[in-house]
Amino acid sequence: MDRPRRGFTLIELLVVIAIIAVLIALLLPAVQSAREAARRSQCTNNLKQVGIAVHNYVTAFQVLPFGKGKNYVSVLPSAAAYARWSVHSQLLMYIEQGNLFNAINFNLPPETPGMAGDVPFMPPYQNPNRENQTASLAQVATFLCPSDAGDALLSQWPGGNNYLGNLNTWACDMGEALPTDVPDPGAKPSGIFYYLSSVKFAGITDGLSNTAFFSEKIRGRDTNDGNARSDSLIMSGTITPSPTGFEATHANCEALSPQTTTRLTRRQGMSWVMGEMCCTSYNHVGTPNGKTCAGVGFAGTMANMPMQVPPSSLHPGGVNTMMGDGSVRFVKDSVSLTTWRAIGSRNGGEVVSADSF
To answer: SUPFAM superfamilies recorded for this chain (predicted)?
Structure first.
């Protein structure tokens, strides 16, 4: 006599499937959170490596590297004024990239990708004999945040960058020696890595642990990101002339709509060699993960070009920021503008508590 076959009924099978689906739904966020925690940890480690490199550079030269090097127009008239070396190029020897550093011919400009958004802006530059092509295209893992992966532009230009030096000033090319046509001749750069800067530790009177050196920025995708955390909005057309100073730049940028405003560039962070705010430097005009804006209606040189370029990240709630002592702190999006600007300056005399970040 055959025994009756035992098995699952359809209802039992559906119940089991439903239970498995619920478990997956519960576990998936935890798995994603764990993965992001690992990526954020790697991002923190990258910034710490940059911090060690900065300190080793100071040990060797007794001064911090420049944020933006000179341009080469006087020696190579065909060179683009924006084709100049970044602070990153000066740190290569100290992040185990000595061969890459030695491959660079610093007597000539770097090659640069085109940075255009909705308007012509910083077209590609190549040296006559393609000198520095290989170095400019080289990908440096230490300069890329793992949370900001999957960028199709990296296949076009592998030398992308997520970590920016603190220029701090509201004007793109403000340096120690200001042109005579600067609207605010009394202004002085208060950051760390600016145009032809040569800051010494002794000049950081606010203290290394209270002064931001590097932070992170989401790289552009060549498409509007919807909120201008990586795109750069244009402060022009309705604003004439371009604003001057921290407050005016901030107010005008915050008034712009990311949905309707023309983009100057959608390729933020496309090149680690470019000593420009589109790629390797940021400021403390606006708080983290806020809008990025640039004024193009300025008079004279780029020393007059107002910009708001805050750091941004894909880490929920804030950004990693490397301080002058080499420590990395997670600065929340909710940080007050007063505190954010205080840690952006090297000699403002502000008192900042650790719990205000």
So the answer is: Pili subunits
